[in-house]
Sequence to fold (558 residues):
Amino acid sequence: MKDICIVLSGEAGQGIQTVEYVLTRVLKNSGFHIFATKEYMSRVRGGNNTTEIRISSERVRAFVEKIDILIPLGKNATGRLRDRITRETLIIGEESFIKDAGGEKIEVPLLEMAERIGNKLYANSVAIGLVSGLLKADRETLKLQIRKQFEDKKEEVIKQNIDAALEGYKRGEELSGRIKVSLKRDDAVKKECLLNGAEAVGLGALAGGCNFVSSYPMSPSTSVLVFLAQNKSDFGIVVEQAEDEIAAMNMIIGAWYAGARGLVTTSGGGFALMEEALSLAGMVESPVVIHLAQRPGPATGLPTRTEQGDLNLVLYAGHGEFPRVIYAPGNIEEAFYLTYKAFNVADKYQVPVFILTDQYLVDSFYNLPPFNLDDLKVEKHMVKTGEDYIRYKLTENGISPRGVPGYGDGLVKVDSDEHDEFGHITEDFTTRVKMVEKRLKKGEELKKEVLKPKLIGDENYKVLLVAWGSPLEVIKEAISDIKEVALLHFSQVWPIDNSVAEYLKRAQKVIAIEGNATGQFANLIKAVTGFEVKERILKYSGLQFSVEELRKKIEGVV
Fold:
């Protein structure tokens, strides 16, 4: 076995995220390829949370259902995982935590081992060491990462956590013969990055010149705000936690008006409050970049779970008609590069640009090579205004020269009412028609830069899968050894080039795969191209797709 899946489970407040953070870095810095994702309940304490860590000799980037090793860190930590536990699952932990679980059990008294070191609180460090020992990770790397994690504590606490981890490591080494795994190390992995989707969005914003972020916290988008806030001093970012989402969106419009490059990050329920301000951006032709991390609705729905249910929301949001762009990254690399691109596109065309992610993408992470920054440039399209400056000058492509106050001698006039070329309010019907057509021309111009979908798999396909956003890597792994099947993946879901119909017509069967209940993107394809995708694999439980379930469903169709 060259790929092993470890699941840690316990209550909120037990420090499972800390275990995940430290352990993944120990394993990555030991030369193993890593993928990790989490599933957690909407509560501060209690409930049952899990984190899945895949360790492999090759790159892994997708969620699987199988559990090779399960480590419960509290009572009732195995109940919700029963469907994923098999006879081959090795369950390791306190006798009281594992007694009701299936699979093969090995009792390891984590709490007792921690207490012998000095405190039961060190049980998490014992668990980190246990897994490290099972996989024969680098012992010195383990010690360094534990020290780094607790560097703000007293030296005695740091030393005891290291001792606890080493005690766990010793026990893990003793048990390593019980797992049939052959993992090869790759020293090149040690030099790679370990990022989640939220960090990739944040880094992409920085690469795009973002220097202002405003948000009202809302899961699962808050991690982007937190990342940028943590790095604001290093990159000169102004960070504002607004009093509500309405204020946050209006601040972003104001920031762009003043010459900054602003980002607002939110989720579906928060964006619902931003729609009036979105229309304001459409009317004053202001660039704005909006990151929306999807979660299940309606209303509060499942606040900490995942879904692809907000495509229609962002596509049709706002009153009146005005152009927009919607990107939907399929993985961490795309989350970086598309967020970077969003700022340049917003600046150039003076339109709202969306980055549409979801909980699964922002909370998942894996190792990857450093991003190539050589060709990334912050493209600014502001003009220095003269005394005769005309903000909404009618042009052939609808894009007017954008000035900002204080840069030049001109007066930059904008208004939320309909206006003439100079920005003066007007109720002249002829001018109204000209201005509507001017704004819509930009939408036509945007189609020249539309990102083409990627065809992945057998080019001589008979079955064509159509997907957008975060299911990308799961589908890629699911079809990796299936012949005559290909995936057409969209990382830009608006505008869509109607030439995609040619891909669809070549297939004997087309199947849409989406994380929602109605096939929103399949319906959009029909509206744009006239091609109806009748067969659909949809999931809307609040959980992401797994490699196994998609492989089974796709093979059933083939």
In short: DSSP finds 20 helices and 20 strands in the chain.
